[in-house]
Amino acid sequence: MLAAVLYGQENFRLESVPDPVPGAGEVVIKVAAATTCGTDLKVWRRGGHAKMLRPPTLFGHEASGRIVAVGENVLHWQVGDRVVANNSAPCMNCFFCQRQEYSLCPNLTWNNGTFAEYLKIPAPIVQHNLLPIPDDLPHALASMTEPLACVLHGVARSNVKAGDRVVVLGDGAIGLMFVAALAHGVRGAEGQRGRGAEEQRGRGAEEQRGRGAEEQRGRGAEGQRGRGAEEKRNKNVLK
């Protein structure tokens, strides 16, 4: 198969490599869509990642596709299933996993190699972080499941409530998804359940359409003294 192989700093090449074969508990998917994460860009610039990968290695970690091969002892999955595989899985046994702080697991299983025709999914990811794709969801959107999950987790942890003023730092894919989630009522607060885009019209990013710099004067840091990010900054200084 054709695959992107990372050899070092700003050095990856398209090469022919052997097709992956699933072991026990593993599946192989034919990649339909693979996205480029900001981490991929940093890894390419730096030439590696202390935990995720070491060159030379297959590259990329966000993708969706269709299962084409299934290993022994795989349950609930079959050839032809449309799936998205998240890029890691926790061990479920360590101190942090027992406290459901899975992102802090020191024994994460990583998955790399999405920039290829086929991708082998490790058994722990098949068990914990392989997800079915609904028939009406395009592969290109499904491949963004992992960054969207990060956004929804962040919204849930932030405890943002209706009427709050929120600062989103950065307007990349994650930042824009945060704006969309907050503006359209996808919130972690219990009281916000069931409030969709219709009820949220006129709030957040939608509210700002058509408002130029002239109208916004006095609404930045100067107009918000004692609120939001300005207030937090002062509290941190006092500490």
Give a written overview of the molecule.
With about 240 residues, the protein is an alpha+beta fold. The protein has two domains: about 140 residues, Medium-chain alcohol dehydrogenases, catalytic domain (Quinone Oxidoreductase, Chain A, domain 1), CATH 3.90.180; about 70 residues, no CATH class. Helices cover about 30% and strands about 20% of the residues. It is built from ten helices and ten strands. The strands form three sheets. The chain has a five-stranded antiparallel sheet with strand order 9-3-5-6-10. A three-stranded antiparallel sheet has the order 2-1-4, covered by helices on one side. Strands 7-8 form a two-stranded antiparallel sheet. Helix 5 packs across helix 6. The longest helix is centred in the middle third of the chain and has 14 residues. It starts with a strand and ends with a helix.
Low-confidence stretches: 187-224, 231-239
CATH class of the largest domain: Alpha Beta
Quantity of strands, as a count = 10
Total helical elements: 10
* Integer-rounded radius of gyration: 21 Å
As a percent range, the share of strand residues is 15-25%
Mean pLDDT: 81
Task: Tell me the overall shape.
Answer: globular
| Total tally of structural domains | 2
Helix and strand run: EEEHEEEEHEEHEHHHHHHH
Major β-sheet strand ordering: 9-3-5-6-10
Instruction: State the CATH architecture of the largest domain.
Output: Alpha-Beta Complex
What is the helix fraction of residues, given as a range?
Answer: 25-40%
* Main pleated-sheet profile: 5 strands, antiparallel
**Helix-and-strand structural type:** alpha+beta
| CATH topology-level fold name of the largest domain | Quinone Oxidoreductase, Chain A, domain 1
Give the distance, in angstroms, between the N- and C-terminal Cα atoms: 56 Å
The CATH H-level superfamily of the largest domain is Medium-chain alcohol dehydrogenases, catalytic domain
